[in-house]
Design a protein that fits this description.
The chain is an alpha/beta fold. Helix content is about 50%, strand content about 15%. The chain is built from 33 helices and 26 strands. It is globular.
Length: about 850
């Protein structure tokens, strides 16, 4: 039996599929039969069979942890199933990879956008979209066209880290739509979108389906399915719970399939109007993005914050949680609190749980208990029993699905991560709950539990403030709704006025409307170029140049020979060696790694050369020596990369082991200095034009070419993308392992070139030479502005950092200072660079 027959048979057997065959069946674009996937013995999908047809919007529903994201990851090629078959337009497509999926025409918009924050908006589009999309047209025009399709209006040169959550989601959707795919997967696409943006998206989805695209739409909002869905499949605990036409299924039937039980009501009963003193009072509160906000909450009330996205809601929530300073007055239970007091009094549930809500390297238990550690301590000692019991009880109340308390938080679905964030808030036992989009990406069953718990917290006397882009949610949950427009309160709704229609009407008809695109562009034009430069990777070049000039002038004032042709030549020769090695170090640091073996590799290379590149040696013998140096560099680069990517060594451990091994080989080959390098070779390598070594001129060319590759070519964007966010890079189809190994090989090749310069300088094979370049190269790279966290770097900055370091060493010798000052100056410069670069890059972007 064919896979299509298997799928139809499975659909026919479903108890909810009653009228499917009365519909003229469209051809199956992608079919899945018997798909099974497990993680560490726990099954995420079991025998899933489903078909996605051309021209249909096929909704996939299910609780958090039901297997929806796993299924989508298999379709997009990010994960491979343990068992099962996948077909695409009738032909076998297993196994799928991200590259193969993209070639077939499968495009996905992730719930957590695969946006690389260290790249600009334009670079994100260029690294994610196929090059053919840009052929024959101006790149910026294509990018603006792609973004305008989803109503996104932001500067192309700004870094993606400056985007709001909603803007990142729009950019993710724009990338998915840009290729006009045959299969379009949308995972919770409206989670952070306001009504206007959601309506726009629905229009795009209908248009895509009308053109024959098979749209797979994952959502927790049943109302959205009614608007655009044709067919629906429900997953529960990794199995297909049912499938059918949307028109044939009621909401109650869908809910029964999703949660496996009856839900009496989505929202718990609201509080009865209460008189008496307010337990939360906010007067004339103002800060970045909002001003003159006043409201109060009485015991038992839940206050909602509403408005078109980007009108100050999130900024207000952060101020209420004490995370951002604000002017005005906040009183809790009659006591006035400043923002520092609020940090301790309030529990904050951020909208972006991956960035602010969870600690990715911590376990589920640690994330839940993080804010309440002192409550589990006695006489300064933690009680693991108390902590464990409290976490277990809270998780049971919230129905958190986790493979275990010690599992990494990243092993949980997005909705279950959000439940852990709520669990932490409950364990803190705060005086105020501030929840920014608390149900984003949470299934209907879990939403019911969260609504119930927030209502119980409010009923117990703890004020609850909720910001939500879903007006229907605010209507059902909140007793009082504050509507913001352009950061100001334009309506306060209470009692029977808290209805979706009035909330939306107040937001969209306010006089204080959100800025228009023209206004935003006008604002960005004022100082925008300077702001973007200050936050660019090459901004460190300015202070480095200033320090270099100041040091040169000071050295000259103390000793006129400091700027002599002889000293300038020697300084630049030394700097050239360090710079070539540091350029290699820049690559691995941008990949979020490090290479401690660069120094010993340079030294070993010179030792190898000392056996072959000698006076009187034949040309073939010399070429053999250079060939061996090059071969050793490639082997070391491959070994380092393989140890890190496949043997799972940390970069420090792998390259430190290589450091010691290479140094040992150097001493085995030569116990001390020996084997003089050919004078003719050193003369060629040390040739000069005036005070400038030709090698330094070649270095400048390499820096320019390297910088061009880094900024203007696909391989450069890929390197920076992998270093910035490896998971996002993998999801957009980049081969992360290959890029990392290529990075280590490229580093070794730069060390090879640096070793040639070192060979010309010392003129002898010395096993003790080279090791100092490891620390010096890292220092030069950090001074140049490359981030130790990966993703951001510049060859120009590295070159200037290397020259500055060499200039410092020379100045210390000319000024008669002890070698101790080398380390003092290096340390001071690194601290200075860290403070300056962090300050510049920490400013919010337009």
């Amino acid at each position: 039996m064919s896979i299509a027959s298997n799928i139809d048979a499975a659909n026919t057997g479903s108890h909810m599929e009653t009228n499917v065959h009365s519909l003229a069946e469209a051809p199956i674009t992608i079919g899945m039969a018997g798909i099974t996937k497990s993680f560490s013995g726990v099954y995420a999908l079991t025998d899933v069979t489903v078909a996605f047809r051309a021209g249909e919007v096929h909704a996939v529903l299910g609780e958090n942890g039901a297997g929806k994201s796993t299924l989508m990851s298999i379709i997009s090629g990010v994960l491979q199933p343990d068992r099962g078959e996948i077909t695409f337009e009738g032909s076998t497509a297993s196994p799928l990879t991200p590259e193969k999926a993209a070639d077939l025409g499968i495009s996905i918009s992730y719930q957590h956008p695969a946006i690389v924050e260290d790249l600009s908006i334009l670079e994100n589009l260029q690294v994610s979209l196929p090059p053919a999309l840009f052929e024959g047209r101006k790149v910026s025009d294509v990018a603006r066209e792609v973004m305008s399709a989803v109503g996104l209006d932001v500067p192309l040169k700004m870094r993606a880290e400056g985007l709001s959550i909603g803007q990142k989601l729009l950019l993710e959707i724009a990338k998915a739509l840009a290729t006009k795919p045959k299969v379009l997967i949308l995972d919770e696409p409206t989670a952070s979108l306001d009504k206007d943006a959601s309506d726009m998206l629905f229009e795009r989805v209908r248009a895509a389906a009308a053109q024959g695209t098979a749209v797979i739409y994952i959502t927790h909002r049943l109302a959205e399915i009614r608007q655009i869905g044709h067919r629906v499949t429900v997953l529960r605990d990794g199995h297909v719970a049912g499938t059918g036409l949307v028109r044939d299924l009621s909401d109650s039937e869908l809910l029964d399939m999703i949660v496996g039980r009856k839900l009496d009501s989505t929202f718990p009963p609201k509080a009865k109007p209460m008189l008496g003193q307010a337990n939360l009072t906010v007067k004339s509160l103002g800060g970045h993005g909002f001003s003159d906000v006043s409201f109060e909450a009485r015991p038992g009330e839940i206050v909602g914050i509403a408005g078109v996205a980007g009108n100050g809601q999130t900024e207000l929530m952060r101020a209420l949680a004490g995370l951002d300073a604000a002017r005005g007055e906040v009183k809790l239970a009659g006591q006035r609190l400043n923002h520092k007091d609020l940090i301790h009094a309030a529990a904050f549930m951020p909208a972006d749980r991956l960035v602010e809500g969870v600690a990715k390297s911590f376990s589920v238990r640690e994330n839940a208990a993080l804010g309440a550690l002192e409550k589990f301590a006695s006489f300064g000692f933690m009680s693991r029993r108390k902590e464990h019991q409290a976490v277990v009880d809270t998780f049971r109340e919230l129905s958190v699905k986790t493979p275990g308390l010690e599992a990494k938080i990243t092993a949980l679905s997005g909705g279950n991560q959000q439940k852990v964030v709520l669990a932490r808030a409950l364990l803190e036992q705060p005086g105020l709950i501030v929840a920014d989009e608390p149900t984003q990406g949470v299934d209907v069953g879990a939403r019911f539990e969260m609504y119930r718990i927030l209502r119980e917290i409010s009923g117990a006397g703890t004020p609850v403030v909720v910001n939500s882009s879903d007006a229907a949610e605010l209507e059902g949950l909140c007793d009082r709704v504050i509507v913001l427009s352009k950061g100001r309160v334009v309506a306060t709704l209470t009692g029977e006025d808290v209805v979706e229609a009035k909330i939306v009407a107040a937001a969209v008809s306010a006089d204080h409307h959100a800025e228009t695109g023209a206004e935003r562009r006008a604002d960005r034009s004022r100082g925008g170029a300077l702001r973007h430069f200050l936050q660019s990777d090459n901004a460190p070049a300015v202070p480095l140049l200033a320090i270099m000039v100041a040091l040169a002038l000071y050295g000259y004032s103390q000793n006129a020979n400091f700027l002599s042709s002889f000293n300038v030549y020697n300084t630049l020769m030394l700097a050239t060696t360090l710079c070539f090695i540091s350029m290699g170090q820049t690559i691995v640091l941008m990949l979020r790694g490090v290479d401690l073996s660069v120094g010993p590799l340079a030294g070993l290379s010179v030792v190898i050369a000392s056996f072959f590149v000698n006076d009187g040696a034949s040309l073939p013998r010399m070429l053999t020596g250079f060939g061996l140096m090059l071969a050793v560099a490639v082997v070391v680069g491959l070994a380092n990369g393989s140890l890190v990517r496949y043997a799972k060594f940390t970069p420090i451990a792998a390259t430190l082991a290589m450091y010691m091994g290479l140094q040992g080989i150097s001493f085995l080959m030569r116990e001390g200095p020996g084997g003089y390098i050919s004078y003719d070779v050193t003369a060629i390598l040390g040739a000069q034009i005036g005070p400038l070594p030709w090698a330094f001129v070649a270095l400048i060319v390499c820096v320019i070419v390297g910088e061009y590759v880094l900024r203007k070519t696909r391989i450069g964007w890929q390197i920076r993308a992998v270093g910035s966010d490896e998971e996002a890079a993998r999801r957009i189809g980049l081969n992360v392992n290959r890029l990392n190994i290529m990075g280590y090989v490229a580093t070794a090749l730069f060390v090879f070139v640096g070793a040639l310069m070192l060979m010309a300088q010392i003129g002898v094979g010395d096993p003790q030479q080279g090791t100092s370049y490891t620390l010096a190269s890292i220092t030069a790279v950090v001074l140049g502005g490359t981030s130790l966290r990966g993703g951001r770097g510049t060859f120009i900055g590295t070159a200037l950092g290397a020259v500055l370091l060499t200039e410092i060493f020379t100045a210390i010798a000319f000024l008669g200072l002890s070698q101790t000052y080398q380390y003092v100056f290096q340390g001071a410069l690194i601290v200075f660079a860290a403070v300056i670069y962090t300050t510049l890059r920490g400013r919010p972007q337009a």
